[in-house]
Amino acid sequence: MVDKAEISKAKRVFKRALELDQNEADTRRGIERVLEGVCGLDPLENLSREHAVRGAGETEYVDFTLNIKGEIVMMIEVKRVGLNLAQKHLNQLSKYTIDKGCNWALLTNGKQWRLHGVSYGQPPQLTEILSWDLLEDKPARSAFPSAVASPPRPAAAREN
């Protein structure tokens, strides 16, 4: 069950952040509050910040990883609150997620939230599963925070 008071508080935070045109670091702090208050995640147990991702090139860093029982289950990339999410941001997140072998990816600027699942075919692809506009959508769209807090296990993992 989603706490509507927490969603209202998050809306106020990001409306103000937009008015102040806050930077990416400030947006990350707000995202962490939403992940804790709205999604019910423990920031110490479930979130890692600036997680190193080693791919074919230089080591890069994803803003957050979501960890459940010590396993990374989701990569989270944050952009500045006033920046519209674009394909290049999804490409960046896709690279991190696939390089790490993760099954879930979340791209957000605090206002827009886009949850993607990864299919590891040839080539691997991210598919948008859910999207949520924190400032526009009604709190009744509770499937999004619940899906972030407890992403479904991929089919291959369920079969084992």
Unreliably modeled segments: 154-160
Overall outline? globular
Order of helices and strands: HHHEEEHEEEHH
Strand order of the largest sheet: 1-2-3-4-5-6
CATH class: Alpha Beta
Largest sheet: 6 strands, mixed
**Mean pLDDT over the full residue set:** 81
Q: What count of helical segments does DSSP give?
A: 6
Q: How many separate domains make up the residues? A: 1
Q: Please identify the structural class as seen in this structure.
A: alpha+beta
Question: Which second-level CATH architecture applies?
Answer: Alpha-Beta Complex
Percent range for β-strand residues: 25-35%
Distance between the termini: 29 Å
| Gyration radius, in Å | 15 Å
CATH topology: tt1808, chain A
The total strand number stands at 6
The percent range for helix content is 25-40%
Name its key features.
6 strands; HSDR_N; 6-stranded mixed β-sheet; 6 helices; Type I restriction enzyme HsdR N-terminal domain-containing protein; 160 residues; tt1808, chain A; alpha+beta; disordered C terminus
Q: Topology, please?
A:
Layout: H1 4-20, H2 24-37, H3 43-46, E1 47-54, E2 59-68, E3 71-78, H4 87-100, E4 104-108, E5 112-119, E6 125-133, H5 143-149, H6 155-159
Parallel strand pairs: 3-4
Antiparallel strand pairs: 1-2, 2-3, 4-5, 5-6
Helix pairs in contact: 1-2
Tell me about this structure.
The chain is of the alpha+beta class. It has one domain (4-151): tt1808, chain A, CATH 3.90.1570. Helix content is 38%, strand content 30%. The chain has six helices and six strands; from the N terminus they run αααβββαβββαα. It has helices spanning 4-20, 24-37, 43-46, 87-100, 143-149, 155-159, and strands at 47-54, 59-68, 71-78, 104-108, 112-119, 125-133. The chain has a six-stranded mixed β-sheet with strand order 1-2-3-4-5-6, sandwiched between helices. A hairpin with a 2-residue loop joins strand 2 and strand 3 (71-78). The longest helix is centred in the N-terminal third of the chain and has 17 residues, at 4-20. The protein starts with a helix and ends with a helix.
